């Protein structure tokens, strides 16, 4: 019997090779980019061009230009492509009109840690074709193991200031040159052009190897989370229960699938599996998916952290709006859990669960991981230890148990005699306390004294020896 592609895919995923992720910087400082000019158009023959006097910028020029005049900055550089250059025209350019004074914009405010200024793909070809990957905000910015790409025919200016002294990536490609070693890249960074392209309080380094763990690697941008989220503006959501994925700055409408995995799991292969089996379907074409390894902190009694492990987080972001927002993502999450139930053991998945913005949730357990077992055992031991400490402290007088409310009042109020009324207990007489506390009085505790005690329906009556009849008559 011939196996189908769906049947072979779990097997092939086990041998998938690790894929690199390429993050490309979007803005540029190119002369021919109309958005870089305050008038919204590229200067022509009748225009006066002004660069900010104190600005520091490198400008890539692709073609030849004729201008009426140009004011240059104190510190700047033109990067001229083959055949590119400038000339000053005499008179008015008929195709340019009367001419204007147009100013080049400043770019010092563009931040490395702004997620909106990057796009990601699994290859350079996918970057050129526009086949982009979706990531949570922290991973939209280049991670330690990512290849950073600046377009070949492009200049730029980026502020790499971060919370650490260095920002590390796997490689940097700029102006048709790829830097994979920090010694070569450091030399470029100290050049005049390098200082115009990169600035800020942190230095950019090329010294991180690619991710060697086939189960995935953490991005490493959590230390700059505040910087990243400061550049993000969250939009209003209309779903019932918005979700906040790990590494994301905003709530989302959709679903989050959390996967517990074993050492045989391959993140890149699993990401491809989800792409081919589900996201390629027409009904799920509006879903964005981000799959990554995220940290998980285990806590004793839900309070004291004792261990950190990792889960695979699959974020399914529903682009639909309106009252149905998130419904499609929830349907996909259920399909993924069904796939885990069928093929999880072959994919290195121990268990999985999901939460949706509709409030729904579900789980499928393919097996309990060693970390989960250890967590349960440690939790039980911690509880037993806690109880033992309390008992020992109590016996040593270090801890006092709280007093329970007295039941004597409750008992007295509920003691009813056989006639329906409360029993009259009389009063406390010290003469009838324990015999050891009183001096010996002949006959007082003898059998004769019992003859003076009678019981009636109205209560207990007795003869008080202090007021004995014989003594009184005497």
What is the makeup of the main sheet?
A: 5 strands, mixed
What strand line-up does the widest sheet have? 9-1-10-13-14
* Structural class category: alpha/beta
Strand content: 15-25%
From the spread of the alpha carbons, the general shape counts as: elongated
Can I get a quick summary?
By secondary structure, the protein is of the alpha/beta class. The protein is 24% helix and 24% strand.
Protein model, in words:
The chain has 474 residues and is an alpha/beta fold. 24% of the residues lie in helices and 24% in strands. It is built from twelve helices and 23 strands. The protein has helices at residues 5-13, 124-129, 137-140, 182-189, 192-197, 225-230, 267-279, 327-347, 370-395, 408-414, 447-450, 469-473; strands at residues 22-25, 48-50, 56-61, 64-67, 69-71, 75-80, 85-88, 101-103, 118-121, 147-149, 158-159, 166-169, 171-174, 177-179, 198-199, 203-206, 254-261, 287-300, 304-318, 349-356, 361-365, 454-456, 459-461. A hairpin with a 2-residue loop joins strand 13 (171-174) and strand 14 (177-179). The longest helix is centred in the last third of the chain and has 26 residues, at 370-395. The protein is elongated. Mean pLDDT is 82; it is low at 1-17, 365-373, 415-419, 434-439, 441-450 and 470-474.
């Amino acid at each position: 019997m011939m196996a189908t592609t769906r049947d072979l895919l779990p097997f092939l995923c086990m041998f998938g090779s690790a894929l690199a992720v390429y993050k490309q910087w979007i803005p540029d400082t190119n002369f021919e980019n109309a958005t870089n000019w305050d008038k919204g158009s590229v200067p022509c023959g009748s225009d006066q061009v002004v660069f900010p006097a104190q600005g520091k910028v490198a400008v890539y020029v692709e073609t030849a230009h004729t201008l009426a005049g140009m004011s240059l900055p104190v510190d700047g550089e033109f990067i001229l492509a083959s055949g590119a250059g400038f000339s000053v025209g005499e008179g008015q350019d008929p195709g340019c009109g009367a001419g204007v004074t147009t100013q080049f914009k400043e770019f010092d405010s563009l931040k490395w840690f702004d997620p909106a200024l990057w796009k990601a793909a699994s290859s350079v070809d996918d970057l050129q074709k526009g086949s982009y990957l979706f990531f949570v905000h922290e991973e939209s910015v280049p991670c330690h193991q990512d290849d950073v790409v600046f377009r070949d025919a492009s200049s730029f200016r980026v502020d790499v200031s971060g919370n650490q002294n260095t920002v590390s990536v796997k490689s940097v490609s700029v102006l048709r040159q790829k830097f994979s070693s920090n010694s070569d890249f450091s030399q470029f960074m100290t050049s005049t052009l390098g200082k115009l392209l990169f600035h800020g309080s942190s230095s950019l380094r090329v010294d991180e190897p690619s991710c060697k763990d086939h189960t995935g690697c953490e991005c490493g941008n959590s230390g700059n989370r505040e910087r990243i989220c400061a550049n993000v503006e969250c939009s209003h959501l209309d779903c019932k229960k918005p979700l906040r994925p790990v590494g994301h700055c905003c709530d989302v409408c959709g679903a989050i699938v959390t996967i517990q995995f074993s050492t045989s799991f391959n993140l890149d292969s699993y990401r491809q599996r989800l792409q081919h089996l589900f996201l390629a379907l027409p009904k799920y074409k509006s879903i964005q998916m981000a799959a990554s390894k995220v940290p998980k902190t285990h806590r004793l009694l839900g309070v004291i952290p004792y261990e950190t492990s990792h889960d695979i987080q699959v974020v399914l972001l529903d682009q639909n709006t309106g009252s149905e927002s998130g419904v499609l993502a929830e349907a996909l999450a259920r399909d993924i859990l069904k796939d885990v139930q069928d093929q999880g053991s072959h994919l290195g998945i121990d268990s999985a669960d999901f939460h949706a913005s509709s409030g729904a949730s579900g789980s499928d357990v393919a097996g309990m991981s060693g970390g989960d077992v250890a967590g349960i055992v440690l939790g039980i031991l911690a509880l037993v230890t806690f109880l033992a400490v309390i008992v020992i402290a109590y016996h040593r007088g270090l801890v006092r148990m709280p007093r329970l409310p007295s039941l004597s009042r409750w008992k007295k109020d509920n003691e009813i005699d056989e006639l329906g009324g409360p029993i009259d207990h009389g009063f406390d007489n010290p003469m009838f306390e324990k015999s050891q506390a009183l001096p010996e009085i002949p006959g007082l505790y003898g059998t004769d004294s019992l003859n003076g005690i009678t019981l009636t329906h109205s209560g207990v009556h007795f003869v008080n020896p202090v007021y004995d009849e014989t003594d009184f008559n005497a």
